[in-house]
């Protein structure tokens, strides 16, 4: 594609780059196709722990030198973990691009996991777990994953549990990485103003020397066997919280984009979403309500989250069900469909304006789809969505009997 330039090294690592002449900042990151769903029972939380430990020491750096390496020149260094990915990324002025690449390669492939630092970071992660448990907005999302996916790895908390996190030793990290890291499933993604030849030349110094590595990991276990379930939990909260939803389409499914448009219409970030207009603007039952669609390699998750007064929970759920039924029974009119498309196109265009998000999206897309579609291609697909397709997807995915429901109720 003309928008993106690709390069591949003999060890299997790939580079994807987009040049943006109008910026002086380079955003770059190493994205690995390893996530919490690749952990076994005793390893729960180890990928997220690995994310933390990458900053705690390498073969040539101590923690202070890692943390100070880019901050001292006004840059930023960060990382994140998901169910299917771990990513280490940085943002720097273009003159410090080489410094960023060298540091990213070091923490990604040369982390040493010192035992003293493991003990220190273990306490930090346990505090992070406590923080999430004290936040019902966060806790209900993790608990809802477990309600939908049960004992499947997708249902496990990315942070792990106190028992597993409390027992990790240095050899556990080294063994997990050896078993799960494949260099051909690692992408170095970059957005900046530098010429492509210079980006390749700089990255080649630090990534071409990474030793090619396969792994002994068996294929990821596909999710199946879902059945809807309702569950209520008493918690020390003032407001009642609710999550409802069901499994959805995978990342490669042909209806992924039109379904995303449907979910955006139902409860996307816009204040004009169906659920927000009904539950907040018309009835004043919630401060915020959102619908999310999260696609995975083999499945996906449709989820709706909101909080309300406990006495209003039943009424809120009835109104949500009504909106779901309306989308099944009434096809969108020509003007409604046009507005749905224009809103989504605008959101996508604004998202691409943020070069950091663009960099992360490029790397993830290359890993998941083996391609990166331009904004123009995606917009063309959005334009082709029909009202009949939206209604068909609503009929297939919005049957309320297929929804699992989790509620946190005040004690």
Describe the structure.
The chain is globular, with a radius of gyration of 22 Å. The strands form 2 sheets. A 6-stranded mixed beta sheet has the order 1-2-6-3-5-4, with helices on both faces. Strands 7-11-8-10-9 form a 5-stranded mixed beta sheet. The chain is built from 15 helices and 11 strands. The protein has 2 domains: 5-207, Metalloenzyme, LuxS/M16 peptidase-like (Cytochrome Bc1 Complex, Chain A, domain 1, 2-Layer Sandwich), CATH 3.30.830; 230-410, 2-Layer Sandwich (Cytochrome Bc1 Complex, Chain A, domain 1), CATH 3.30.830. It is of the alpha+beta class. The longest helix is centred in the C-terminal third of the chain and has 20 residues, at 334-353.
Brief descriptors of the model:
Cytochrome Bc1 Complex, Chain A, domain 1; globular; 5-stranded mixed β-sheet; 15 helices; 6-stranded mixed β-sheet; single chain; alpha+beta
CATH topology of the largest domain: Cytochrome Bc1 Complex, Chain A, domain 1
Mean pLDDT across residues: 96
Approximate helicity band = 40-55%
CATH class of the largest domain: Alpha Beta
| Biggest sheet statistics | 6 strands, mixed
Given the structure, what is the number of helices? 15
Structural class: alpha+beta
Distance between the termini: 57 Å
Please name the fourth-level CATH homologous superfamily of the largest domain.
Metalloenzyme, LuxS/M16 peptidase-like
Radius of gyration: 22 Å
Overall domain count: 2
Q: Low-confidence segments, ≥5 residues, pLDDT <50?
A: none
